[in-house]
């Protein structure tokens, strides 16, 4: 039976009130800083049955029960998947051997990530769209990135950051916190999964998408195998995956996906927790009055109410916040008329109900919803929202503050009438969120005024990794030296 449209909104209300416990699921995952290795060893020591079985290892809350015999592993999230695979790979490995395979796989994944020769054009690497200097979001301000064989094709969406994805749970239509198992009242609604619409659960399955997509890297398993075989790291690849790995294109492709997935879980690169806000939470830095005021407005349920979706507080267990509850939600982002796909007035990117995602097609209650992104490192981004329509945080904040009080500022006006929510057909409008700051009408006071918007933006700037605590030794923060990849 299809859940009611209103139901989704109610789930959100509960989600907001339950921010604390929403975080606690992430807590454990986060607490395991060296997550990949720790998990691999946890699996190893506990001798987890069927650890290589992707059904049980398949991320998120599901994995929790599979591994719950082990305290550390109770934190299981997407992160565990490849670590568990690594274990499965060489069953009976010693602790040192597990560390060594993860290390090898991470190093290979990193080289693959920067290797443009994997692409059909020879010009596009993962890093072309996910720049390490920009929180693994694009370096340029284009709404959507060029790709394809001629480097002139584009997709529908802005490239997201790849940081802090380690605790995104597997996609669930009805997400229940693991500590509230069986309690219907805490159904948090559609949650989790990777990409803006949550259509895959694992890094490896995700990497398959850009590698094969005709408007992204446009490659094939055969081409990828040839590229890896000819790469400077071919020897290391053989050492990690076996002397005969290149004999089979599909096996090579799978190994590439696994290495990329493992690399994306390197804690020092992808979830270092080195922002000023982390230092502040740890008592090692003070926020300026503007930043502090911004934080207050961010949390205030009557003002920004941002934290109801972008969780800002430590979990009960003391783990740092992810700045997302990973819920999929509709906030009515305006149509981006600059996107080639939107030249067709009948075309809509409806998020979870399609067209990129196909399993929830015709499920009206999933139309227009996109996964809440983390706001960590958001100040390094140059395009915002799933369609990349805005290019500054000020614009994003004004949208939140004035979407309903001054809709004419965001949506097209024809013959004096505002066409609100112009990127979502009216039959799906019941899916739209109506909590603060989206609880107003024309004539009301905006949730945030210009001075308040400035302060919230100041606060968002404290979420960028790499803050140097004064007095701390430089270099204490794990940085990353990266080869440059030309986009063209
Ligand atoms: C042409 C630009 C482009 C290239 C090249 C590219 N990506 Fe992406 N990436 C995107 C876009 C756009 C999305 C969002 C896709 C969507 O929502 O449908 C994305 C999403 C992701 C996500 C999910 C992030 C999240 O928030 O859930 C991961 C992980 C990822 N990419 C990894 C990779 C890897 C690994 C490679 C190389 C194999 C790669 N990407 C190559 C543009 C790119
Ligand atoms: C009801 C849940 C909810 C609330 C409340 C909320 N957000 Fe969001 N936020 C989202 C979702 C969902 C998206 C992605 C929407 C899309 O692209 O369609 C998003 C996207 C963003 C982005 C763009 C990030 C990126 O990577 O493109 C920023 C910045 C942001 N929110 C900041 C805020 C701030 C600041 C507030 C408070 C004023 C706030 N949000 C309140 C759910 C929420």
TrEMBL record:
Residues 104-261, 289-464 form the Cytochrome c domain. GO terms for cellular component: cell envelope. It holds the Pfam family CCP_MauG. The keyword Metal-binding applies. Keywords: Heme, Iron, Metal-binding, Oxidoreductase, Signal. The keyword Iron applies. Transmembrane segments: none annotated. It is found in: Cell envelope. GO terms for molecular function: cytochrome-c peroxidase activity; electron transfer activity; heme binding; metal ion binding. Residues 177-200 are annotated as: Disordered. PANTHER family: BLL6722 PROTEIN, CYTOCHROME C PEROXIDASE-RELATED. This is C-type cytochrome. It comes from Paraburkholderia panacisoli.
């Amino acid at each position: 039976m299809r859940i009611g449209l209103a139901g989704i909104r109610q789930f959100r209300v509960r989600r907001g009130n339950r921010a604390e416990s929403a975080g606690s699921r992430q807590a454990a995952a986060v607490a395991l800083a060296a997550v990949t290795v720790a998990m691999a060893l946890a699996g190893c020591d506990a001798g987890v049955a069927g650890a290589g079985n992707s059904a049980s290892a398949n991320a998120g809350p599901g994995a929790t029960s599979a591994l719950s015999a082990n305290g550390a592993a109770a934190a299981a999230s997407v992160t565990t998947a490849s670590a568990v695979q690594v274990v499965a790979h060489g069953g009976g490995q010693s602790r040192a051997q597990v560390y060594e395979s993860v290390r090898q796989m991470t190093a290979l994944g990193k080289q693959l990530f920067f290797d443009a020769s994997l692409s059909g054009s020879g010009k596009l690497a993962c890093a072309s769209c996910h720049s390490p200097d920009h929180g693994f979001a694009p370096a340029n301000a284009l709404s959507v990135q060029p790709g394809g064989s001629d480097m002139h094709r584009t997709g529908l969406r802005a490239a997201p950051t790849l940081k802090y994805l380690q605790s995104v749970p597997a996609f669930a239509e009805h997400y229940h916190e693991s500590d509230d198992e069986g309690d219907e009242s805490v159904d948090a609604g559609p949650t989790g999964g990777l990409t803006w619409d949550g259509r895959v659960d694992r890094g490896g399955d995700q990497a398959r998408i850009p590698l094969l997509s005709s408007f992204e890297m446009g490659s094939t398993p055969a081409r990828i195998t040839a590229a890896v075989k000819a790469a400077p790291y071919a020897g290391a690849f053989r050492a990690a995956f076996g002397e005969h790995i290149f004999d089979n294109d599909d096996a090579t492709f799978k190994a590439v996906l696994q290495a990329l997935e493992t690399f994306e879980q390197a804690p020092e690169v992808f979830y270092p927790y080195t922002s000023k806000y982390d230092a502040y939470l740890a008592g090692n830095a003070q926020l300026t009055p503007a930043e502090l005021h911004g934080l207050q407005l961010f949390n205030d349920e009557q003002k920004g109410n941002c934290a109801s979706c972008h969780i800002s507080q430590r979990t009960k267990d003391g783990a740092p916040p992810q700045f997302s509850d990973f819920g999929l939600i509709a906030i009515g982002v305006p149509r981006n008329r600059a996107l080639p796909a939107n030249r067709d007035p009948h075309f809509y990117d409806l998020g979870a109900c399609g067209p990129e995602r196909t399993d929830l097609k015709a499920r009206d209650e999933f139309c227009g919803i996109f996964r809440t992104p983390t706001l960590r490192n958001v100040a390094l981004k140059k395009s915002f929202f799933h369609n990349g329509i805005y290019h500054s945080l000020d614009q994003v904040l004004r949208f939140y503050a004035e979407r309903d009080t001054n809709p004419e500022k965001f949506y097209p006006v024809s013959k004096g009438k505002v066409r609100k929510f112009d990127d979502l057909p009216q039959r799906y409008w019941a899916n739209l969120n109506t909590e603060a700051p989206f609880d107003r009408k024309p004539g009301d006071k905006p949730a945030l005024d210009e001075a308040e918007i400035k302060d919230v933006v100041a606060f968002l700037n404290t979420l960028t990794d790499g803050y140097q605590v004064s007095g701390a030794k430089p270099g204490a923060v794990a940085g990353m030296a990266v080869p440059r990849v030309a986009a063209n």
